């Protein structure tokens, strides 16, 4: 195991705060001295099935702890997900059904395994203990926190001030998350900055149970591809870890210049000196963005896929078609007697857009071309003849070849 000072230097990268830092240093020093790994906890509520780069920030830190010889403990919050985490929320988060949570959890670990070495991790479900609890156990847990403590939370205080409801079930969430730390005897817990309240509740519960309290390690919230709001699927500004290489690369190239330092720092292992040089004044930010895109794609798909995605992007930017164009079968009954079809219907049949109204709008904006000579389609109502093998382009990234079936 590396010396504590060396570990601390590595672990500080991309960290917003270590609370309390002096305790963490002592834990790290004792671990290095005795060769006893720290138990580092990260909890995930399976409220959806798409893991995006925002989720990977604490997961990458968890992997870093693993590579330093510590034990990663992943909590699948199948019971906390039934409540819904209120942290950082301006409104009540709707809880999921048990069936929805179970369905989501099945796919979560496969995606998490792209970042964390699951063969060296402990994976626990908090339903393993909460499902055995009686109502008296729940009552006992509620005695560990006062209404004053709960209402002092910034997110709850803001909701109460604006006369938005705060449900009793939400007040249970930090206690449940904290109890997870008691069950697994966590030394460190990772989370976003909005999670600090929950992470500190765990310290109180652990001390009540006679355990050494965990240290809270919080990380910044990754902004989405819009460069403004936090990354999230509902905002359409996310990059999924399971998305195809070309999609990942294209989305990285679309981000504004401002958040690039945050992306490099939180999502890559490139040395900070290298990052500083790439982001220095006078250096073309596009070059840095390409390095960022290839680095991220390499992590999830390998370096060959990253190079291919970059090459495909350059071809698109130069107005060229990709080397491989997906062929999409279109049933013959989609065409009229003369073998024609309106372009909005063809675009939907090729799965290049989800609705004819969206397709119509793209056509009217001049975003659709067909054939080798890139003939623009301008009339969404006019039926067009569609020979087998016709190439259809929608916008800058969507392309397909018609196969009449």
Highlighted features:
405 residues; 3 domains; aminoacyl-trna synthetase; alpha/beta; ATP-binding; Rossmann fold; Structural Genomics Hypothetical 15.5 Kd Protein In mrcA-pckA Intergenic Region, Chain A; 5-stranded mixed beta sheet
Proportion of beta-strand residues: 5-15%
Gap between N and C termini, in Å? 61 Å
Number of domains: 3
Question: Biggest β-sheet, characterized?
Answer: 6 strands, mixed
Average pLDDT metric:
90
* CATH level-four homologous superfamily name of the largest domain: HUPs
- Remind me, CATH topology of the largest domain? Rossmann fold
Number of strand segments: 13
| Percentage of residues in helical conformation | 40-55%
Topology (SSEs and partners):
Layout: H1 4-11, E1 17-19, H2 21-34, E2 39-44, H3 53-67, E3 71-76, H4 80-83, H5 98-112, E4 121-125, H6 127-130, H7 135-142, H8 147-151, H9 154-161, H10 168-184, E5 188-192, H11 196-208, E6 215-219, H12 245-254, H13 260-267, H14 272-278, H15 285-301, H16 303-317, E7 327-330, E8 340-342, H17 343-349, H18 356-364, E9 368-370, E10 375-376, E11 383-385, E12 391-394, E13 398-404
Parallel strand pairs: 2-3, 2-5, 3-4, 5-6, 7-13
Antiparallel strand pairs: 1-6, 8-11, 9-10, 9-12, 12-13
Helix pairs in contact: 1-2, 10-11, 12-15, 12-16, 13-15, 15-16, 17-18
Q: How would you characterize the overall build of this protein?
A:
The protein has 405 residues and is an alpha/beta fold. The protein folds into three domains: 4-219, HUPs (Rossmann fold), CATH 3.40.50.620; 233-317, Tyrosyl-Transfer RNA Synthetase; 327-404, Roll (Structural Genomics Hypothetical 15.5 Kd Protein In mrcA-pckA Intergenic Region, Chain A). It is 45% helix and 14% strand. It has helices at residues 4-11, 21-34, 53-67, 80-83, 98-112, 127-130, 135-142, 147-151, 154-161, 168-184, 196-208, 245-254, 260-267, 272-278, 285-301, 303-317, 343-349, 356-364, and strands at 17-19, 39-44, 71-76, 121-125, 188-192, 215-219, 327-330, 340-342, 368-370, 375-376, 383-385, 391-394, 398-404. The strands form three sheets. Strands 1-6-5-2-3-4 form a six-stranded mixed sheet, with helices on both faces. A five-stranded mixed sheet has the order 7-13-12-9-10. It catalyses: tRNA(Tyr) + L-tyrosine + ATP = L-tyrosyl-tRNA(Tyr) + AMP + diphosphate + H(+). Catalyzes the attachment of tyrosine to tRNA(Tyr) in a two-step reaction: tyrosine is first activated by ATP to form Tyr-AMP and then transferred to the acceptor end of tRNA(Tyr).
């Amino acid at each position: 195991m590396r010396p504590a000072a060396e570990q601390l230097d590595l672990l500080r990268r991309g960290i917003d705060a270590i609370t309390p830092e002096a305790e963490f240093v002592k834990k790290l020093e004792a671990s290095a001295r005795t060769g006893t790994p720290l138990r580092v906890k990260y909890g995930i509520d399976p409220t959806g099935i798409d893991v995006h780069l925002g989720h990977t920030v604490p997961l990458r830190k968890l992997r870093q702890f693993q590579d330093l010889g510590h034990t990663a403990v992943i909590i699948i919050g199948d019971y906390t997900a039934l409540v819904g985490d209120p942290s950082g929320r301006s409104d009540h988060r709707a809880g999921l059904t048990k069936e929805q949570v179970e369905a989501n959890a099945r796919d979560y670990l496969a995606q998490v395994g792209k970042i964390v070495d699951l063969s060296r991790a402990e994976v626990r479900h908090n339903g393993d203990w909460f499902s055995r609890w009686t109502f008296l156990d729940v009552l006992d847990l509620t005695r560990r926190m006062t209404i004053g403590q709960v209402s002092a939370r910034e997110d709850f205080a803001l909701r109460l001030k604006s006369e938005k409801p705060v449900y009793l079930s939400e007040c249970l969430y930090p206690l449940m998350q904290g109890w997870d730390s008691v069950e697994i005897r966590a030394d460190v817990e990772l989370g976003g900055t909005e999670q600090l309240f929950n992470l500190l509740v765990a310290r109180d519960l652990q001390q009540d149970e006679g355990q050494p309290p965990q240290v809270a390690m919080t990380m910044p919230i990754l902004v989405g591809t819009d460069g403004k709001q936090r990354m999230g699927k509902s905002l359409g500004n996310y990059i999924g870890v399971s998305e195809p290489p070309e999609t990942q690369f294209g989305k990285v190239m679309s981000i504004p210049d401002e958040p690039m330092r945050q992306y490099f720092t939180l999502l890559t292992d490139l040395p900070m000196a290298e990052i500083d040089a790439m982001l220095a004044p006078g250096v073309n930010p596009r070059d840095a963005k390409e390095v960022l895109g290839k680095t991220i794609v390499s992590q999830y798909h390998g370096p060959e896929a990253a190079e291919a995605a970059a090459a495909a992007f350059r071809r698109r930017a130069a107005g060229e078609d990709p080397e491989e164009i997906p062929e999409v079968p279109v049933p013959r009954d989609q065409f009229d007697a003369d073998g024609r079809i309106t372009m909005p219907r063809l675009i939907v049949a090729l799965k290049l857009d989800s609705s004819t109204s969206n397709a119509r709008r793209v056509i009217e904006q001049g975003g659709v071309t067909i054939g080798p000579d890139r003939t623009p389609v301008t009339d969404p109502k006019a039926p067009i003849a569609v020979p087998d093998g016709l190439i259809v382009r929608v916008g800058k990234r969507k392309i397909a070849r018609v196969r009449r079936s």
